[in-house]
Amino acid sequence: MKKFLIFVLVVTSCIALGVAGWFYYPKYQIYKMKNASAPSVEAEKRSVSYIDYVRQLNKPELKHLALGDSIIRGIGAGENESFVDRFSAMLEQQTNKPVVLQNEGVAGMTSSELNALLQTGKLDESIQKADIITINIGGNDIIHSVKNRNYLQAIQSFDGLQAAFVDNLAQITTKVNELNPKAIVVLLELYNPLEPGSELYSLADQLLPKWNVKLYEAASRFSSSIVIETTKVINGKHLQYLSEDGVHPNALGYDAISKQMLQQFQNQSVGKPV
């Protein structure tokens, strides 16, 4: 009996460790990739920040192309209050150059829909001319998947859902890089808009790092790519940044995201993705 109890305890411990690793290892991966991108002292002396890089471009104006879903579109705030609008305005002030924004955000768009759109070639010319290409996608993939599902079903479907997203993201970023390898590609972390007391808050808080690590992995393949740390801005402690629908940022939220984006442009170096 004693041996059986020990066996049960060992098996239970292994399962618990496996589940904990499944949930928390992605946070460590993200942390490691962020630190790996930090330049050495000598490299720091030679490095150029993204803001200085675009400032020094021999162009009279900068072109900013924004692709993706309702977060790109600016749903939840007024006209011209999206984070890409606000960032473009701040970039103008920082560089003393006009910034021409082309916002192609579509409310409800999924990664498969954005991938399909890019493969048609309709945006090829815009991609080729852009200096900065900002992409936010994937939130609707998750929303459509977990809708009307319970806790267990959401976990069981997650790996398949993520695999499909990763494939779409790879095709999207590859297409962009083939058409314009000199563009700065900006991706955004997905944030958790749920209240800490809600039923699915802890699940979302555990699953999102697994999702976001794939964005960092995609960014690491390119020399000029940034992942905006949206989760620093919108989280359980800053729900005042959400609009009435409880999902999209409000004007204050978009402003906070744009400031985070500008800060990373100022502090991160070209050639050091993530």
TrEMBL record:
InterPro entries: Ester_Hydrolysis_Enzymes (IPR051532), SGNH_hydro (IPR013830), SGNH_hydro_sf (IPR036514). Residues 66-256 form the SGNH hydrolase-type esterase domain. It comes from Ectobacillus funiculus. Transmembrane segments: none annotated. This is GDSL-type esterase/lipase family protein. The lineage of its organism: Bacteria, Bacillati, Bacillota, Bacilli, Bacillales. Signal peptide: none annotated.
